Amino acid sequence: MSNVQNMSLEDIMGDRFGRYSKYIIQERALPDIRDGLKPVQRRILYSMNKDGNTFDKGFRKSAKSVGNVMGNFHPHGDSSIYDAMVRMSQDWKNRETLIEMHGNNGSMDGDPPAAMRYTEARLSEIAGYLLHDIEKILFRLLGTLMILKKNQLFCQLLSLTFWLMVQQVFQLVMRLISRHTTWLK
């Protein structure tokens, strides 16, 4: 019984939560406030767009897309990349899916998705709109820094680019809605 310590619940919770929150902040990739995407999600979208794996073309094996992302932009293991890709394709988790997927991408009941070698994926149409002018915007933002490889700079600049693209898409959608909707007064 000598290991028993008398401590208040407030002290215990403060200490434990402090350690836990420090771990979460330091060790996990949090979504960016500007676009709501985690770094791995941005890298997947950029890589698929760069490879031409878009909504107007056929589906490609998910394993190929995951390999391209891992080889060029996100060297942290294929499972985290595939999990992020699957989540972006699940319409019950996102209002708009950024990736279309053929094959088993899990279920609302918690069933796991099929292995990446059995599924095919491509960017959705809305992701195509978000990424439409990304090369032009990157070029404009880079200016005199074009000496450096785009791959090294894209992580920092892509977040800003997405924010600009989201604003443009939102303005376009609002214009379309205002044209085709009668507002109640």
Radius of gyration equals 21 Å
CATH topology heading: Topoisomerase II, domain 5
Counted up, domains total 1
Mean pLDDT: 79
| Percentage of residues in helical conformation | 40-55%
Q: Please report the first level of CATH classification, the CATH class.
A: Alpha Beta
- How far apart are the termini? 73 Å
Please state how the strands of the largest beta sheet are arranged side by side.
Answer: 1-3-2
CATH superfamily: Topoisomerase II, domain 5
Characterize the main sheet: 3 strands, antiparallel
Beta-strand segment tally: 3
Report the β-strand fraction as a percent range: 5-15%
- Tell me the CATH architecture: Alpha-Beta Complex
The helix-strand sequence is HHEHHEEHHH
Protein structure class: mainly alpha
Q: Extract low-pLDDT stretches.
A: 144-150
* General shape: globular
- Total helical elements: 7
Characterize the structure shown:
The chain has 7 helices and 3 strands. The radius of gyration is 21 Å and the shape is globular. Helix 2 (39-50) packs across helix 3 (62-72), helix 3 (62-72) crosses helix 4 and helix 6 (134-142) crosses helix 7. A 3-stranded antiparallel beta sheet has the order 1-3-2. The protein is mostly helical. It starts with 8 loop residues before the first helix and ends in a 5-residue tail after the last helix. The protein has helices spanning 9-27, 39-50, 62-72, 78-89, 125-131, 134-142, 150-180, and strands at 60-61, 99-102, 120-123. It has a single domain, classed as Alpha-Beta Complex (Topoisomerase II, domain 5), CATH 3.90.199.
